Protein: ABC transporter substrate-binding protein
Organism: Chelativorans petroleitrophicus
Amino acid sequence: MTVRLRGITWDHSRGFDPLARNVARFTARHPHIEVEWSRRSLRDFGVQPVEELAEQFDLLVIDHPFTGRAHALGCLRDLKPLFPAAFHAMLNRESVGPSTRSYDYAGSIYALPTDAAAQVASYRPDLLDRLGREAPPRTFAEVLELGHAARAAGLWLAMPSCQSDAACLVATLSANLGHPIQPWSDRLLAPHVFDAVLDYLRQLAELSHPLSRDWNPIATYDAMSSGDEIVYVPFAFGYTNYSRQGVAKPLIYTNIAGPGPDPAAGTILGGAGCAISARCREVEAAVEYLSWVHQPEHQAGDYYREGGQPGLRSAWLDPEANADCRNFFTGTLESMDKAYLRPRFDGFIPAFEHMGELVHEWLKNGGDKASLIREANDTYARASEKAARRLLMEKD
């Protein structure tokens, strides 16, 4: 009897192709299992309630901050008892930074590390050479220096800071400064830290392409790799797709250069993980399929070749993959290993997105910083307090 699984991922070649295009390879080994993948927008990937998707699909590719929501509602299966202990141990050994543990919440595991990412820096080597630079910035002072040199030559930096990415910029810079956003806190950030972060963002915004304030990373890299205006992006989630062989105007990716004591540290962790809906009836088949997707040889091989950004460390260290993408993986691995894992409690995502909306609007149109900081902190405090009360009720 044929078993059918329906999956939902996100709408980009990195998110869809390595899963959908490899189904035939899996089915050749497991002819009794059919897998069909659909896709949703990158925006929905970050904000659409996970419980809605779990009602419709067996397999979900999720962002790790949804684990708290999944735990509160019970809409995803705990993968801990479904896979052998040796398999989980392998994923922990293979973790890129905190990617594997980002899906662990309250003693359960709600997804597997399918795709690894964080905010990193990128540049056009030909444009950097035009400015007489032999290497990308290694400190924040050098980032600003490059930005001023770029403007003098009619070029730009770019800082993707649409709502979601504006929030991520705040998270990266605060963590880089040594003051990361903490769960269960009565505020998002101390006002003086928040104020400093906004000042750093304002400095970058003044040197960045004006349209990039409405862009996400994909729009930024599309503009960067198709035109000749943008030389450097200091903070944005990395995509190997723009650095691979065959790209006409390839990008080179490297570690971030923040203003903190360790310039390469504190970048916000991204990535994506495969989860199983609590409503999935074919759990054994889902486990078989996800076991196959997360084998190191598949991740470094067919998964990468079909446009994926692997979630396992051996793929990030694979010489063939690095040669194909101009050392995207090894070039950003230091920042990945020092990445910041944001809170994941139920209610974090709306509070975080609200902060991003405030910062995005402030970067575009200005306004009262003190009011922005106060509103963002108050919203976060209410969300954190509500989640903490819920956890206490669970324990009682």
Q: What stands out?
A: The chain has two domains: 3-117+269-325, 119-268+327-396. The chain has a mean pLDDT of 96. The two ends are 45 Å apart (CA to CA). Residues 119-268+327-396 form a domain with the D-Maltodextrin-Binding Protein; domain 2 fold (CATH 3.40.190.10).
